[in-house]
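ok so I'm stuck.
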Amino acid sequence: MTSTDTARSDPSQTRSNDTATTSSLLYDAADTPSKRICYFYDDEYAGMYYGADHPMKPPRIAMTHSLVVGYGLDEKMDVYRPRRAQREELVSWHSEEYIETLRSTTPEVFKHSLSHGSTYAKYGLDEDCPIFPGMFDFCRLYSGASIEGAAKLNSGQYDIAVNWAGGLHHAKKSSSSGCGHFCLDQVNNDDVRSPRPGSH
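replied:
not stuck anymore, here's the structure
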């Protein structure tokens, strides 16, 4: 058993560090599988709420995680609590103005703008890509997971990286799109394109 077993049994005991530069390893795989797998998850995902009529339901990520744990699949992977993506990582692709708008706009101001002529249309912020409580930190959290996953794959440390929230990657440089506020494909660009040590 490792020192991370307590965190594994109760992931809500610790909170992701806002300024951490690496993800926290919660649990080491007891057996070495044929494929080395890193898995990213945080209990904060479960509390995110896009709205009653919105098709995106982050609690489904928590439900999927419960199945993973229930079937003991977490014991076959190294489980990490993701760190939040830092501003300099986000602005490596997204515009400063866009990131600042996402960070500073409150749900109340956003809702008021929708009913009084939205001033956020140019940022792609609408019913499809809303501002909701905790949205900016949620996006930073799953983005940090994808950035870390890409780095671990590229270094050769792992063969597979799992981040259920990583599909929220449809944003443009200065606007949201397709339920996504950040574009992870571009944020991860340098990590993904750099060749692995010893690869050709």
